[in-house]
Amino acid sequence: IQALRRVDWLDDAPVALTAQHRMAGIVLYASLFEPDIDRIDLRHLPDSHHDGPIFLNVLRYMDLPQAVTMAAERSRVRLYQENDS
């Protein structure tokens, strides 16, 4: 994300992140540490860190639903589950 922002002609381009399954959790947390993410599309996000992604000690403080809430305060978040298209 940071490398793309350094490209001159991409300066003002909106940033949208898309991922599925365990990588959806990684993208979710990446969005918390990067400013100005316009949209996050998460497909088949695990219900909990018990199902992945694995981050040491994160469950002492929060789980994936709380991370989604934090991301939604800064970006548009779309969740797609099994029966969604």
Per DSSP E runs of 2 or more residues, the count of β-strands stands at 3
Topology as a string of helices (H) and strands (E): HEHEHE
What is the domain tally? 1
Please tell me how large the radius of gyration is: 13 Å
> Biggest sheet: strands side by side, in what order?
1-2-3
User: Residue share in helices?
Assistant: 25-40%
Sequence stretches where pLDDT stays below 50 over 5 or more residues: none
Backbone shape: globular
Protein architecture, described:
With 85 residues, the chain is α/β, with parallel strands linked by helices. The chain has one domain (15-80). 29% of the residues lie in helices and 18% in strands. It has helices at 2-5, 22-33, 64-72; strands at 16-20, 39-43, 76-80. Strands 1-2-3 form a three-stranded parallel beta sheet, with helices on one face. α2 links the parallel β1 (16-20) and β2. α2 (22-33) packs across α3. The longest helix is centred in the first third of the chain and has 12 residues, at 22-33. It is globular. The two termini are 26 Å apart. The model has no long low-confidence stretch (mean pLDDT 93).
Question: Could you outline the blueprint of secondary structure elements for this entry?
Answer:
Elements (H helix, E strand, L loop, with lengths): L1 H4 L10 E5 L1 H12 L5 E5 L20 H9 L3 E5 L5
Parallel strand pairs: 1-2, 2-3
Helix pairs in contact: 2-3
